[in-house]
Design brief:
The protein is α+β, with helices and mostly antiparallel strands. The chain has helices at 36-41, 44-63, 90-101, 124-136, 144-160, 162-165, 195-210, 241-251, 254-259, 276-279; strands spanning 21-34, 69-74, 81-87, 109-122, 174-182, 216-222, 231-237, 260-262, 266-270. It has an 8-stranded antiparallel β-barrel. The protein is elongated and about 90 Å long. The protein starts with 20 loop residues before the first strand and ends with a helix. The model has no long low-confidence stretch (mean pLDDT 96). The structure holds ligand 76R. Ligand 76R is lined by residues 121-122, 180, 182, 202, 205-206, 209-210, 212-213, 216, 218, 220, 231, 233, 235, 246-247, 250-251, 256, 260.
Length: 282
């Protein structure tokens, strides 16, 4: 009688703690303040020329095939404008930034903040499933066989998720942007929770979010290693009250109630680039 021997199953504590993620478009938010005093001192015709040059460049960027840009008029003291850019790479983002810096209008703008990130889809469900299945087969994490299987899962998901990884600029009128962290405190530390527990909480988070699917478009971008917070949250909607309701409801959800830390909130109203001259009072 022959017995088939299986390699021993790998225990959960030896599996990677980090979930699989898919990365897509590079994102830059530019918060800008207008130097109104200097701007208003210009002759009307000069203002019109300068505004037209900027407006033309931004109209092109709105339609850029490799990733779009959009202008929002910011409410409150945190700045006057927020430009949101999606591009294929950091190099392209940097090119866009430098092209804009070359505009004459840039002499009348100054940055009040900025945020650099990459569109991120967290794959908690597939991570748990895939890590578990490979562990049951005794395939050691980070072995060549393990890496090949993981890459296959990622490649499949990347293809299925392409429209979400490289999104078009949502057409909605209002934007709400803010950066976030997950808590790393002495008592509450997201990064110390077992994968299965994080997956459970993120699943519940997604279920709350899904009820708002028709009213709000959410884009989560990862910024660990790129900026001062861990994620950027962009919400787009045609009614700003939806932001308040969704974010309020999420505060009661376990993962937000226990682990969410929030940065500065920015709310803006879409300003089509063609209307920039009018917006500048020209
Ligand atoms: O991407 C997906 O749709 C899959 C499920 C999902 C993930 C992985 C999801 C769904 N989110 C994910 C990740 Mn979210 N989200 C926020 C906020 O946290 C708060 O209390 C407020 C900030 C909102 C309003 C929101 C909305 N989400 C994340 C992450 C990364 C965390 C990680 O990976 O550890 C953060 C920081 C975060 C925060 N989320 C949704 C929404 C909405 C509306 C959905 C459902 C989208 C849909 O199904 O159409």
């Amino acid at each position: 009688m022959s017995t088939v021997t299986h390699p021993p199953e790998i225990a959960a504590e030896h599996l990677p703690a980090v979930p699989l993620t898919l990365e897509g478009a590079s994102m830059l938010h530019q918060m800008l303040r207008v130097r109104w005093t200097a701007w208003k001192q210009l002759a009307d015709s000069e203002r019109a020329d300068i505004a037209l040059e900027a407006s033309n460049m931004l109209v092109e960027m709105e339609r850029e095939a490799s990733g779009q840009s959009a202008i929002f008029s910011l409410l409150g003291h945190k700045g006057d404008l927020i430009l949101v850019h999606f591009r294929r790479s950091f190099d392209e983002l940097n090119q866009a930034e430098r092209k804009l810096a070359g505009l004459r209008l840039w002499d009348y703008l100054e940055p009040s903040s900025s945020y650099l990130s990459v569109v991120e889809l967290g794959l908690y469900d597939s991570s748990l499933k895939t890590y578990g299945a490979l562990a049951a087969r005794g395939i050691a994490p980070f072995s060549p066989e393990w890496s090949a299987e993981i890459e296959e899962v990622l490649a499949r998901q990347r293809e299925a998720m392409a429209p979400r990884l490289y999104p078009d600029m949502p057409p909605h009128k209002y934007l709400c942007f803010y950066p976030m962290d997950r808590k790393r405190g002495e008592l509450k530390n997201w990064y110390r929770l077992p994968m299965a527990e994080r997956q459970r909480q993120m699943h519940a988070h997604g279920m709350v979010g899904r009820r708002y699917a028709g009213e709000v478009k959410q884009i989560i971008s990862g910024s660990i290693g790129f900026d001062d917070w861990e994620w950027g949250v962009d919400l787009f909607a045609d009614d700003p009250l939806v932001f308040k309701k969704l974010i309020y409801e999420m505060r009661f959800d376990e993962v937000s109630a226990d682990y969410a830390l929030f940065g500065t909130f920015y709310v803006g109203i879409r300003c089509p680039a063609a209307d920039l001259g009018k917006w500048l009072g020209g």
